[in-house]
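Format notes (please read before filing issues)

Several people have asked whether sequences and structure tokens are stored in separate files. They are not. Every record keeps both together, in the order shown below: the sequence lines, then the token lines. Line labels are part of the format and must not be stripped during preprocessing.
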Amino acid sequence: MSTLTKVALGVMGKLRPQPAKGDSTTSISLPPPETRGGLPLMEALARRHSSREFAPDALPLPLLSGLLWAAYGSNRTDGGRTAPSALNAQEIDLFVALPSGAYRYDAAAHELRLVAASDLRRVTGYQDFVDEAPMDLVYVADHARMRLVPAGQRESFASVAAGATAQNVYLFAAGNGLATVIRAWIDRAAIADALGLTHDQQVLLSQTVGYPKPVS
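Then the structure lines:
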């Protein structure tokens, strides 16, 4: 679907998910992440960049496992995460839009839990490439976990946490031959409706991840 068509549907409030492709299993158990190796930090930073062309190939589970752990996984026995949050509110929920459905990443269990048995990739952004890329991440802030943060500052605090998580994805992508791009031009109301979010949950950003499109 073209960008202009998606924008028009968004204006009319008619941007909708597609039927799921494949089995929408209630949960996807992820293998333990590989937490050693990879590129040195400075090399990963040197390679970090945004890409807007993706191959449609799905990421194998071991690679997806490493990506999600790097993004926002639990890296300490006390439940601390790979990305910071003010007052350790851990207000960010990371949703994964796959062809088979939309899932929430459960860092404690290191697994994906189904929240919508539909293909939400089209809804996660106006750009045409999001429809065919294998995966789109959606960053959602749960304000109910931020009771100790003044209400007027919650969005900015959560946006910083989401940005740190998105940068983790960028560095993992750079170190593992993946392509990614963060996106703020999104229909937040359509995404929230598709994910069944509550009034306390706020859609902040989306991020497409996949293999780079082969050079023809």
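For reference, the curators noted about this record: Helices lie at 3-11, 41-47, 61-72, 154-175, 188-195. Residues 71 and 161 are 11 Å apart (CA to CA).
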